[in-house]
Specification:
The chain is mainly α. The chain has 3 helices and no strands. Helix 2 runs antiparallel to helix 3.
């Protein structure tokens, strides 16, 4: 009888390449404000899934949407500024 653990190494060998690269980590850090803003919006929307939104809930969702839009605008502006040659 063959051991399953011995066969597992043949199927999915452990690789040092499983960790994110420095470039991937930099990209995540660059987009982090947008990611956090989208999480806030998702949290606000999940809050009202099982009930009718109250006025404060609607304000929270609007605020979260504005935060996402501002984060997207900022991300795009930083991306354009980092391009060689400036704005196209």
């Amino acid at each position: 009888m063959k051991s399953i653990a011995a066969l597992q190494n043949l199927v999915t060998p452990w690789s040092d390449g499983l960790e994110p690269s420095d470039a991937e980590l930099d990209a995540i850090e660059f987009e982090l404000p947008l990611i956090l803003a989208e999480v806030d919006l998702l949290d606000a929307e999940i809050t009202v899934l099982d009930r009718a939104p109250a006025e404060l809930d609607e304000r929270r969702i609007r605020r979260a949407r504005r935060k996402v839009l501002a984060a997207r605008r900022s991300l795009i502006n930083r991306s354009i500024a980092s391009l060689p040659g400036g704005v196209a």
